[in-house]
Design brief:
Layout: H1 21-30, H2 37-49, H3 55-68, E1 73-77, H4 83-92, E2 97-101, H5 105-117, E3 124-127, H6 131-136, E4 142-147, H7 154-161, E5 165-173, H8 194-206, E6 211-216, E7 222-227
Parallel strand pairs: 1-2, 1-4, 2-3, 4-5
Antiparallel strand pairs: 5-7, 6-7
Helix pairs in contact: 3-4, 7-8
């Protein structure tokens, strides 16, 4: 087994921006212009309130991943006001379904307004409760399970979701590089234990023999794990 590289001692993880901002600007410039007023409004609200959304590049990535496997059924652990659901709902088509979970009723109301205006609300099953409880109320397999809850819960969500991803389906999680904290020995955590929880989450996935996994370093890192076919 290859010996893991020793992480350097870095006290300021902000220097570990995985993808240079100029590269991300270039990548965004390659995208087909998407000036849907609903999308722009959702992005403006996130900027105004400092609300964490995946952003345009990651959103297009989620949509592309979903289309690549012809996803029809998606579960979101943590949906906010529906920004990531916007991209998944576009991908699953008129006959698909995205089950959202969000504990804040006000975010549910915002999501309904935005996604209705975008013509996507009929593809959404929005459940206003904690993500793990909402997931427990579902049955069957999913094409994609997407994780964006509180980071301390990441290992728990992985363990809940992995056996509910269909063969050939995907488990995707946001923020798995956590502004570089996962790669350094010294860091200032947002909440105690969150960085170690993300590290454990990532280790569990990469060590699971039933999944192939990689990390897309765009923005704050998205892990994609594909359940093997057999």
């Amino acid at each position: 087994m290859t010996k893991p590289l020793k992480s350097p001692t870095v006290t300021n993880p902000s220097v570990l921006t995985p993808v240079h901002p100029a590269i991300e600007t270039y990548m965004r410039g390659l995208l087909e212009p998407t000036d849907h007023p609903v999308l722009l409004e959702m992005e403006a609200l996130a900027q105004k309130n400092n609300f964490p959304i995946v952003g345009r590049l990651a959103g297009v990535f989620l949509e592309t991943m979903a289309k690549m496997i012809n996803a029809q059924r998606v579960f979101e652990f943590g949906s906010g006001y529906g920004y990531s659901a916007y991209w998944f709902a576009k991908a699953v088509g008129e006959n698909g379904q995205v089950i959202c979970s969000e504990a804040d009723f006000l975010n549910q109301q915002k999501a309904e307004g935005y996604l209705s205006a975008a013509g996507l609300w009929d593809r959404i099953d929005f459940r206003t409760e904690m993500a793990q409880a909402a997931f427990a109320d579902t049955t069957g397999l999913f094409d994609i399970c997407y994780n964006d809850v509180d980071k301390g819960d990441y290992p728990e969500v992985w363990m809940l979701a992995k056996d509910r991803v269909r063969p050939g389906g995907l488990y995707i999680a946001d923020n798995v590089l956590w502004r570089g904290r996962v790669a350094v020995e010294q860091y200032s955590d947002v909440f105690t234990g969150w960085t170690e929880a993300i590290r454990e989450h990532n280790r569990l996935i990469f060590n699971d023999p039933d999944f192939d996994a990689f990390i897309n370093p765009t923005r704050d890192g998205l892990i994609v794990a594909r359940r093997k076919m057999g």
